[in-house]
């Protein structure tokens, strides 16, 4: 499972370290490498929707709005 832990700053907006295009490409690459799902943390709603629509594997959101397929709160150990 790929985990897009972007820290505590929202990613995919104009103020973030990573651009929306970089995160989308990373998600596609993670899927190509065989991931069974992707966890998106602190990603903008528009980008979450774009990533979810681009992948065949499930997206799971943690503080990533409600555009993921699975938006329930999950707890990551050592987080």
Oligomer: single chain
Query: What percentage of the residues does DSSP assign to strands (E)?
Result: 15-25%
Average pLDDT, all residues: 76
Q: How large is the count of helical segments?
A: 2
Rounded to an integer in angstroms, the radius of gyration calculated over CA atoms is 11 Å
Helix percent band: 25-40%
N-end to C-end Cα span = 16 Å
Q: Structural class, from helix and strand content?
A: alpha/beta
| SSE topology string | EHEHE
Major β-sheet annotation: 3 strands, parallel
> How many strands in all?
3
**Low-confidence runs of at least 5 consecutive residues:** none
Judging from the principal axes of the Cα atoms, what is the shape?
A: globular
Spatial strand order of the main sheet = 1-2-3
